[in-house]
Specification:
single chain, 2 domains, 8-stranded mixed β-sheet, binds coenzyme A
Length: 374
């Protein structure tokens, strides 16, 4: 028997005259929580959405509807359905992939969705396309069923990204984000430098502020720059204030005086070793220029916009394009998906806000350059 011909269908944007066929697909595909004709018409006409249909010879086989909420970087898969006759032929997968592409082109970085816990076909489709469960809602549907919340990053390192190939290194302790970010920068600039757990702790011992917030000290930008300079890299520190750093996050007078002493010592060492410390704020344009000139940048951020906690955290800026900066986050967000911590896209509008730390509104970064070697 000859193989059956591959199933032929096209994906295109939904238009108003699809509404009847969409309504009928909706009836065939869902037992409850269906979209009404009026809602379908609304979404066909709306602008802040991706609404795609799959069709074969004038027959509508399926659709995917994604909402693009203004002011966020998230796309939300609002509904996807393939009529019973078209199922199991790759149409759902093709619709969702096309919807991800269109959402990514509209500047969205993540796709999120909710799916009924019992909907095995849909969950298998999402898992196959790389979605991960990150939460659940109880009694979400009309039939009181629970929903799983799933998410996928839809914007990866784009072709036209200006960046160096930077190896990623996950920090081994809570307090060594600074050393991990520094090691990534050094390894990205010089393939002979290999990040390792011993140097991670050595860097921390060279760069620690001793105290920070209430726990173990994090790393001081000048301390990190001095440590990288010692390893043969050219560095320059940018910091938007002249007083001792991280002093506001500590209450005890005794601890404050230790932090002050350490800060003063780093500044003195910087002066002695010719390390530039620029007491100025820095702009997005400067960051872009540094990256385009072949430098890498380690930057202090507040994790507030990543995980809701206001913790100081060092990351490595690894690339830039028209819409985003990309960073390597040394914190492993998900052990199984370290890719999610690499070339993590941050919208240009968000990067400045993200890099303001604490009540003192500290902004600091270290520009790291390849040393001139014979
Ligand atoms: C979920 C749905 C959209 C899938 O569409 P589809 O065109 O049949 O899916 P595809 O043929 O593209 O299948 C892609 C993958 O999904 C999974 N999948 C699809 N149907 C499946 C089923 N019945 N059982 C298990 N896995 C299934 C498989 O992993 C499949 O990959 P494979 O073919 O390599 O095994 C379709 O079943 C549907 O419309 N269901 C009713 C509406 C619905 O539940 N929508 C989701 C709301 S959250």
């Amino acid at each position: 028997m000859p193989n059956p011909a591959p199933f032929d269908f096209q994906i295109r944007n939904a238009v108003e005259c699809d509404v009847d066929a969409l309504f009928s697909l909706e009836q065939q595909s869902f037992a409850g929580d269906r979209l009404s004709r009026r809602r379908l018409r609304h979404w066909v006409r709306a602008e802040n959405r991706v609404f795609l249909v799959a069709e074969a010879t004038d027959q509508l086989l399926g659709y995917a509807l994604v909402l693009l909420r203004r002011g966020t970087r998230l796309a939300r898969l609002y509904s996807i359905a393939v009529g019973p006759a078209g199922r199991g032929k790759g149409i759902g997968k093709a619709l969702l992939s096309a919807a991800e592409d269109a959402s990514s082109r509209s500047g969205r970085l993540y796709m999120r969705l909710e799916v009924a816990e019992a909907n095995r076909a849909a969950i298998a489709l999402y898992q196959q396309l790389g979605y991960r469960t990150f939460g659940s809602y109880a009694n979400y549907y009309e039939d009181a069923g629970n929903a799983l919340r799933m998410q996928k990053r839809i914007r990866y390192r784009p072709e036209n990204l200006h960046t160096l190939e930077v190896p990623w290194y996950g920090q081994r302790t809570d307090f060594t984000c600074g050393p991990a970010a520094a090691m990534m920068a050094m390894a990205g600039l010089d393939a002979r430098y290999e990040p390792n757990a011993t140097d991670e702790l050595a860097l921390w011992r060279e760069a620690t502020t001793i105290f920070m917030t209430s726990g173990t000290g994090g790393c001081h930008p000048i301390g990190l720059a001095l440590a990288m300079q010692k390893r043969g890299f050219d560095c320059a520190v940018y910091v938007n204030q002249s007083g001792p750093l991280f002093i506001h996050s500590v209450r005890s007078a005794r601890k404050k005086s230790v932090i002050e002493q350490v800060d003063a010592d780093y500044r003195q060492q910087a002066a002695l070793s010719g390390l530039p410390v620029v007491t100025e704020d820095f702009s997005q344009e400067q960051c872009q220029q540094w990256l385009e000139d072949g430098a890498l940048v380690i930057m202090l951020i507040s994790t507030y916009r990543l995980d809701g906690k206001k913790v100081p955290h060092w990351v490595t800026l690894t690339g830039v394009d028209d819409e985003c900066f990309y960073l390597h986050d040394p914190d492993v967000d998900d052990e199984d998906n370290p890719l999610d911590s690499q070339y993590l896209p941050i919208a240009r509008d968000d990067i400045t806000r993200m890099s303001i730390f604490g009540g003192e509104k500290l902004r600091t970064s270290v520009v790291v350059r390849q040393p001139d070697r014979p």
